[in-house]
Structures are given as structure tokens and as C-alpha cells.
Amino acid sequence: MLLTATISFTCKQRAKIETAPLAIDVARVTEQKLPNAMQFIAPIAANYSATIQPRIAGFLASSSFENGMPVKRGQLIFTIDDAPQRANRLAAEAALSSAKAKAAEAKRNYERAIPLARINAISQTQLDQYTAENLAAIASVKSAEQSLRNARLEEGYTRIYAPISGIISSSAATAGDYIGPGTQFSTLTTIQSIDTVAVDLAIPMRDYLAASGRTAFSYNNASLLSDIRLRVADGSEYPEKGFYKFTRQNIASEMGTIVIVVGFRNPDYALKTGQFARITASLGGDRKRIVVPQQAVRQIQNISSVWVIRPDSTAEYREVKLGNTAGEWWIVESGVEKGEVVATTGLQKLRNGMKVLPTTK
Q: Nearest 5 degrees, angle CA 92-CA 96-CA 99?
């Protein structure tokens, strides 16, 4: 009899324990005025690029850079064998000297002919001939001077300098290759200017219109974005704030987005082109948003959910659509309403309809 009573008492205790409400912490869903923060993941691009193309054809003599390394504007990067251009320059210098000598002789003949023509010692026809020869000699000198300038210019084209500062790409051409217009090496390399880098932010048209307060697209969006921040792959925040650059002309109608380009100063070349970054920016002014504590949200396989505690202290599972985080809060786009209560502890133990003992912290 004593053993039976003990067993019966133990079963009753167990039943009482199993049916006792689960004690959990809860928080009320609130509405707060927060910046309209948006997040973007996009590749970093160069501010602009310069394509290096030889102006003349010739044999590549040397390259004076390391692939993928920084170069400075005005730095010598390629040298073309200049033997033909040097020969042309020397020939042009000789032709100019000859033209100047002939011009000096024609000028002396013309100057001697003028007084002789005044006393009719020579005919007018002879004076006209000397005059024409002098003018032709002057024109020959000008032509020879221009030919020499062209020859020097062509010779200068054998030395290729970096037009901008930036990171230079590798070149397929090596010393001894025939390069230039009409050859397989008409383009030698590119230099990317990354003192400032650019990132494209694709903003849904609906969000753009809501944040800007406009009814149509505008190209002047300098005041739309603020507090532009960049985080690299390891999660660290880049120290330089971003700034608005411009809005791309074309709207991606198939996706209903506009693209705003922002820039980041990159004086130490810490940011690399092609690198993906996470950008956060406030779009428009502050807005009233529904928020819940971050610990109230569960995320499993891209499904976000909360446990709503009804007025009768029973739990209800809700899927929610989340916005961005704001400090210790999750912004909730849909799924819960202001004033409702959500669980912040015991989320894995809760079941639909379960009785709970909520405690507000």
C-alpha cells in the first residue's frame, strides 16, 4: 500500500510539472522613428580606366612596370624600338638645313634684284622670278620645319607614358613583339584609377519614390542618400564615408530599379576593383518603423519568425518579413503590429497554443 501511494504521488507531481506554464521573457512590439537604412552587396569598380594603345607600329623594346602594381602619371611604361623614327628625324633635320640654305640664297638674289629693277637693269619678269623663288624657298623652309616636327612627334611616340595614376594590368605583349595599329597588339594594357572607387547601388523604384517623396524619377539625387558606409568581406568597416557621385541614366525597367553611383576615397589603395562589399546607406529622412528586439527573431533557411504571446498568455508562431537592423532592434516590414508582445527567451521550446508565464524585462 505504501509503495502504491508513493508511485501515485510521483506521477501527479510529474503531471503537474509538465502542465506548468513555461516562464519566458517578453517584449512589446514598438514603433520608432529610425533612419531608412538600406543594405546593398555590390562589386567595387574603378573610378575610370585608361586604355593604353600605341600610336605607331614597331617592335616592343621594353616594359618598365610590374603587372598589377601602382604606376604614377607620367611614368615610362613601354619603349618601342625607335631606329626608324630616329632615322626619319635625322633626315628631316637635314632637309630643313638644305631648305634654309636655299632660302638664304633666294633671299639674297631677291634683295639684289630689287634695286636693279628700279634702274631697269633687269626686267620686271626677272624680278618676278626672283620674288617667286624667294617665296617658294620660304614655303619650303616651313614645310621642312613641319616635317621635322612630325618626325620628332613620331619619335616621341616610341616612348609610352602612363596617362593617369592607378593600377596597371598585365600585358600580353613582350619584348620583340610587333605592336601597334593593325597588329594583334593594338592594345597593350589598361590602367585603373582607384584613388576613388565607385559602387553601383540598385534601389527599387518603389523605395526610391517613397523615400524621395516624388512621383517620378529624377537625376538629381545628391540629397537622397546619407551616412554611406562600406564593409569589406571580413566585416570590418572602411574608415572613409561614401559620397554621392551621380545617377545612371537608364532605369532597369525589367527589374524596376534605379542605379545610384556612390564613391569612396581610396588613397592607400586598400579597396580593390572586383571586390564585393556591403554598403549601408540611409535613404531619405527618418521614418516610423515597427521594431522588435533582435533576440525575439529566429532565422532558419531564409525564414524569419517570432513567437507572439496572445492576451491569454498562449504562444502563436508568426513568420515575419524583416528590414534592416537598427542597433539592438530588427525592423519588421510585416507580420506583427505595434503593441503586440513577442517572446525573447525560450524560442526553441515554444509550440503553437502553449501556455506561458510571460515576464517583461
A: 135
